[in-house]
Amino acid sequence: MYALFNCISIEQFNDYTRVERSAREFLKSVVAIEKSLDSVVEKLRLLDIKLDLRTTLSSVRERVERALELRKK
Predict the structure, then answer these.
(1) CB 65: neighbour CB atoms within 10 A?
(2) Can you tell me the distance from the alpha carbon of 51 to that of 45, in angstroms, rounded to the nearest whole number?
(3) Residue 44: which residues within 8 A CB-CB, separation 6 or more?
(4) pLDDT tens, position by position, 14-64
(5) Is the pTM of this model over 0.90?
(6) Which top-level group of life is the source organism from (predicted)?
(7) Which domain holds residue 53?
(8) How many other C-beta atoms can be found within 10 angstroms of the C-beta atom of residue 9?
(9) Does 1 reside within a domain?
(10) Per the domain annotation, does 20 fall within a domain?
């Protein structure tokens, strides 16, 4: 543990923690939006209207999840 504090300051550690927490909260929001869009997309599909927002949100979510996984390593 002492070696960890030699490498980064407490402020830097707190910044990393805040960033990770914010990223996780962002992911929760994206998942909620994706679920809402599912019903919207289905209703629009009934009207023969295609919506690409869901794909974009999924892509953003995947990128954030990958970034969080890389931070754990």
Answers:
(1) 14
(2) 8
(3) 50, 51
(4) 777 888 888 889 889 888 888 887 887 777 777 776 656 666 777 777 877
(5) no
(6) Archaea
(7) 9-72
(8) 10
(9) no
(10) yes
Residue type at 4? Answer: L
| Domain assignment present for 2 | no
pLDDT at 23: 87
- Confidence class of residue 1 from pLDDT cuts 50, 70 and 90? very low
Question: Are residues 53 and 35 in contact, defined by beta-carbon separation less than 8 angstroms?
Answer: no
Residue 47 located in a structural domain: yes
Gyration radius of the chain's alpha carbons: 18
For residue 6, name the pLDDT band (cuts at 50, 70, 90). Answer: low
The residue type of 47 is: L
Please tell me whether residue 36 adopts helix, strand or coil conformation: helix
